[in-house]
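Before surveying the methods themselves, let us examine one representative protein, written as a sequence plus integers encoding its fold.
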Amino acid sequence: MKKIFLCKETMEGETRVALVPADVKALVGMGYEIAAQSGAGAAIGHADDAYAAAGATIVQTPDEGYKFADGEIVARINKPDGPLGIGKDTLHISSFDVFNEGAAMKEFAQAGVRLVSLEMIPRTTLAQKMDIQSSQMSLAGYYAVMLAASRLPKILPMMTTPSGTISPARIFIIGVGVAGLQAIATAKRLGARVEAFDTRPEVEEQVKSLGAKFIKIDLGETGSTEQGYAKELTPEQIEIQRQAQAKVCAQSDIVITTAKVFGRKAPLLLTKDMISQMKPGSIIIDMAVSTGGNVEGSDPAGDVLLDNGVLIIGGDGLERFVPKDASDMFSGNIRAFLEHFWDSENKAFKIDMDDDIMRGCLITADGEVVHDKFK
């Protein structure tokens, strides 16, 4: 395998591209042959000429690209509508949301497509440079703060003026993963007073190192999964957490929730009763809205303005609002993956099932679902 077809994204609202010209040039230099669909990078200003100059062949339609990469490699951001047109034994690399796409996963298996789900790449030191979750969520966390600040009817930093002193805005961030940490850092840089909470006590030092206050809530036994995500809480633990968080939310101008449980429905952390205690003009951004939502009443389709003047914003796919950097980082993740499995002796990509990274992200092969979690 050494041919790659770079697809143009078709999902509504998608602004990113899976490979940028700089990484195409590097991969071509290694020995890969690449075909890019016309317009693949147009949304972020990468014209077809830039891909051609990087060494790619430009094709006009997906069918042309699939034919070029028949039995080879296809790369894109999001999963396609189906395997139609993708040749048997082709390695398809993209996000796939395998926990919620069981029927589609089986359809790709039956079509003989080798499916790589980039979200399933193990969260290890070696695989860190391939981790799309970290690269994309860090940008989403940054943008969540910028979005909230643009909608808040007050400024974030403290300001002393001849007319008096303006107190800093108070921001409460729930969930201190990659997105949460970047949100904390961004909010602090903008001068806000920041508080944060996470069920994993080991992140307290990280929160403090960024200048924020860590809210301690005694939930009993908590911790992290093997993938580094927070473990799912019991109903009793969630209720304790809600009661403690209600007090902090009532004092906050902005609340950003980032609590996702990998492969499961997001926990409901902010109820209508808790939100009713917040100040008019406050902003809530629910970054888990696409997986069930942390906030009661949040809507993936748009903003929700409540009677008490609190605005709930569904923060789904916020990385798409900074598509230049998001594409650069996503492309770097894919390039690292392709480089890792490049067999320099045979000048080809090698599917190495003895490698933990490949075992962790290869979902289907040889007409079957082969991943241990989904067999």
Summary: The chain has a mean pLDDT of 93. The chain has eleven helices and 19 strands. Residues 86 and 230 are 36 Å apart (CA to CA). Residues 137-321 form a domain with the Rossmann fold fold (CATH 3.40.50.720).
